Amino acid sequence: MAMSLTETRYTISEVEARTGLTQHTLRWYERIGLMPHVDRSHSGQRRFTDKDLGWLSFVGKLRATGMSVADMVRYAELVREGDHTVGERRELLERTRREVRARLVELTDALGVLDFKIDMYAMNTTSTTSTQTTSAETVAGKARL
Q1: Which residues contact 57 (CB under 8 A, 6 or more apart)?
Q2: Does the predicted TM-score (pTM) go above 0.70?
């Protein structure tokens, strides 16, 4: 695919600064097939486009979901294969969405427990500032959580 002469191109150092991904990671993404073909300058230096930056942003979102590298690479392969893979791509993303939702439920439950304990300790601290607990009371308290 030919690039327009007016299209902004970024060096690997500029992409590192914009994305927070190291140059090593960017090269690795390209090597494993997670990053589509990156154009090169006449001297062989990588030249990334805004489209590449958009792809890297999307990959970052997939990483945040906990999607495995293998699944991310598979997704990238499907994209390169063309429109006939839309159904398989959708299935992969739907499965990931289900996993994220399940983790959100777990995290919400864990957050509720933390909030409860923090509130309990906050109330306990204000009401018992002059009361010292014994070692036995501390052990008994730990047994209750």
Answers
A1: 19
A2: yes
